Amino acid sequence: MCRLPLRVVSHESCARRSLHLGHVDLRRLIGGEDNLEEARAAYERALQLDTSKLTKEFQAILVNNLGVVYQKQGKLKEAVQQYTRALELNPNYQDAKDNLARAKERL
Predict the structure, then answer these.
(1) How far is CA 56 from CA 1, 22, 107, in A?
(2) pTM
(3) How far apart are CA 51 and CA 56, in angstroms?
């Protein structure tokens, strides 16, 4: 199963707020309790914000989690692209490495 790390550091409060657009808890959405398409759209909106104020590590978390959504939707090529992008942002991000390996196995 894909991991969903949503650790947010305090200086990234604007990004944290974007993860709760409309008071939607994206961890709950990805967990299958709601619409994955809504989670995808919310992550994409978060990534369209001014990410220059976010650390590369936090950007990698957002991108990885978007990949998780794609993988849960069965969109493995898109998931691989997002996991690869997450690793470009943070080459040491183990969750993205693991998710990329799993997605490539399923391609």
Answers:
(1) 24, 25, 27
(2) 0.73
(3) 9
Domain count, the chain: 1
What CATH code is carried by the domain that includes residue 49? 1.25.40.10
- Measure the CA angle with vertex 81, ends 80 and 82; round to 5°: 90
Structural domain includes residue 3: no
Output the pLDDT for position 80. Answer: 98
Place of tokens 């693991």: 98
Is 1 inside any structural domain? no
Backbone angles phi, psi at 93, to 5 degrees: -80, 100
Examine residue 2 and state whether it is found in any structural domain, yes or no: no
Q: Which two tokens stand for residue 105?
A: 């196995």
Say if 44 falls within a structural domain: yes
pLDDT (tens digit, 9 = 90+) per residue, 17-73?
Answer: 545 443 345 555 555 545 888 888 888 988 888 878 888 998 999 999 999 999 999
Task: Say how far apart CA 34 and CA 64 lie, in whole Å.
Answer: 19
Domain assignment of residue 19, given as a range: 11-106
Query: How far does the chain reach from its first CA to its final CA, in angstroms?
Result: 16
